[in-house]
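User: Run a structure prediction on this.
Assistant: Running it now.
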Amino acid sequence: MKFSTSRETLLAPLQQIVGVIERRQTLPILGNVLLRLNDGRLELTGTDLEVQLVTRLEVEGRAEGSTTVPARKLVDIVRLLPDRAPLVAEIRQERFHLQSGRSRFTLSTMPASNYPEFDTGAQDRVFAVPVAVLRRAMDKTMFAMAQQDVRYYLNGLLLEIEGTTLRTVASDGHRLALFEAEVPGLAAGSAQAILPRKGALELARLLKDDEGMVSVELSSNSLRARMDDLTFSSKLVEGRYAEYRRVLPSTTERHVVADRNELKAALTRVAILSNEKYRGVGLFLEAGTLRLKAQNPDREEAEEEIAVEFDGEGFNVGFNASYLLDAVGSLESDKATLSFAESNSGCIIEEASDPRVRYLVSPMRL
């Protein structure tokens, strides 16, 4: 194998590949990137057996072939070369040789035939979604995913198709984030897929452009997304997601409308003196006024008061300040709407102008 290209052309896909490769691997070859050169196109593959990324780029190929080389060493070398530096790479005597001007590097290799195959299974559903829609759907919900919950399905992101509706859901058992959007062209029927946490984070990282479409292929155990010269694959979390609709109140009796920036700033300040472990903040509602209170075991206290649109009977309830801040911070409109079914119920946080995004935060005792 021998090819030539430029530093910038090779660096970008290499940096994408390194994102899916774990630093500590049970199999040494999983720390390598798989290189395949065929007909002037170089294909780079990285995987940790849960997530796989394949990128393709045009190079000046002189001899076809394949090999694997240490991924992080290669990306560090290419990154530290001068801008627009030309590169010549080739395999000689089972070593990967890289030359750029008067710089020369030799890396160890492992046979490409030993690189593990990533089984995606037979496709059950194929559909296309605008990149901007899928990126927004993931950005608005991923922060609510659990990290190490014994309920394994919570350690991921639910991607749901129902007719022409695309829906993403994430929850850690204390809060829930829901996004839904109409996507014309989706075929009839329904499908669910639970992306593991790493798979969701890596896919969101790849969704950069606002234009274009992403083709999504679902099988019983994996998801594959194709974008231009990128192919992303991820194993799915086995099982079925919890019935999230059951925790969403069917009706809400109390509605509070607040300036989003003012509410966020007040929450941020009050949370400074909340209990570091529980982060509890009390909300005290009266006609036209929302008071926020927090205290900690050192008997330090904080209180803020902001004007809101609310004319119902007063009540108070406690929440985790971090959960409220995550939800309010994800809104984009000038106003935030907080809705309550009962005084001791969870809080629905949404934008009055965009009902596609909803957050549910469970109450806590203070």
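The chain has a mean pLDDT of 93.
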